[in-house]
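Could you join me in thinking about how sequence relates to backbone shape in a protein? Label the sequence line and the structure token line clearly, so we can match residues to local backbone shapes. Once you have written the record down, we can walk along the chain together.
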Amino acid sequence: MQQPTFEYSRPQPISRYLADELRSWVQLWVVEATVAGFIKPPYKIGDDLLERALALYEFGVEPIDAAYSLFGVVH
């Protein structure tokens, strides 16, 4: 399976540790969305979607829950 990639530049500077943690979280989020069949690689994340994902990250949501929240079927 091709490893998903992403590009994002946050407007304010963040620590190297936070950047690494955030990168890992987003990669897991994209992998979970791919495994669930919501997206297919290669996938380019739009700014609006990434902003929503970052809000979930900051709230403490796990990557798999974020994948279902952002890509899943809305009831």
